Amino acid sequence: MSKDSATHVIDPSDEFLNSRFQIKNSIQRFNPKFDIFNRSLWDDQINPRNFFASYDIANYAPKKSKGFDHWDYALRNASWHLTDLVGEQHFAESGAVEGFTHPFTTQVPGPDVPIVLKSPQETSKRIKAAAKLFGAGMTGITKVDQRWVYSHSFNRKTQDNLSFDLPEGMDTVIVLILPMDYRLGTTFPSALSGSTTGVGYADSLQCATMMAQFITNLGFEAMASLNDTALNIPLAIKAGLGEYGRHGLLISRDYGPNVRIAKVFTNLPMAIDQPQEFGVRAFCEQCRKCADACPPRAIAQDDPQEKPPNISSLPNIKKWTVNAEKCFKFWVGMNTDCAICIRVCPYNKDYSKWWSRLGIKLAGGPLRRFMLWLDNMLGYGKRMAPEAWWKL
Ligand code: SF4
Ligand code: SF4
Description:
By secondary structure, this protein is of the alpha+beta class. It is 37% helix and 10% strand.
């Protein structure tokens, strides 16, 4: 952590996270070698079986259950097509999976002379306007806290695990929230519903790479990233985009948990945002819908803990942590991703409806117990039959 303490200036958003999650000074940066997907390549305990192979349509295995037939896999795999194409463009020579193990290398060079900026506030405003145009539902800007930057980069081809630091000067991060399709998300889990995940990644890819190119065109440095390079959730919380839920996901202020997160690291000087709370923590303390609904019981029923269930999560930070081993084993059994925990979460709503937004607002205050009861009474979170989505 020597580089970290030397270069990072503590700002109030770091203090917020320190106290909210009782982060110990002994916390270490996460090594992505221990990420559950990367572990499945080298750790005999984690067997991916046909999970990754099924994303090649030649290997899909139809099931009798609805939502797992040829149509469903064809749609899911097509939704991943762009992300795979761009992300794996250099895999054969470098082993990089851009967006997952390494940042994107899609940018073309910018001008030699950077634009003259009026003020950090004005720059932030313009960056957020551009992010909206590029597809972001929400945008937050914060200083990089090096504790959330990965300590290494993991190469999925060679399994090299080399130490990693952000390039000098990239001290600011633009965090982008990409909402996913609400109706399709109500069919989780199925191969069909995996299409909303695929589209979410493609939206993230578009937004982050366009933003990085925009900043490059202004004459500054930028690096587009999805799940690679740093942990998204603490950066999103720091950037004021949402709170942390029992299911280990970001609950974004304007779209709930049904989102993907992308980010762009940059040296462009901008005004930064601060964390915002709207009652999620207190609500999660009452509600256990995600933990009750999770088939492999991977979500904690008890209070936040400092010690994670296994090596795929960071210790020395007090939080609810999903048991990634149990969760991934369930995905492997289905040959597709599961997001039952997103589907049943009372914060997962159609935010275009005023009554949804009002309900979420009330859930953040003293009416939280009543709102939880109402959520159950109204039948939110129930699975829509996959074939019903095809008929919509
Ligand atoms: S994705 Fe599915 S298996 Fe994993 S934690 Fe959520 S509900 Fe459980
Ligand atoms: S389902 Fe309930 S406990 Fe789980 S994250 Fe959502 S609000 Fe929190």
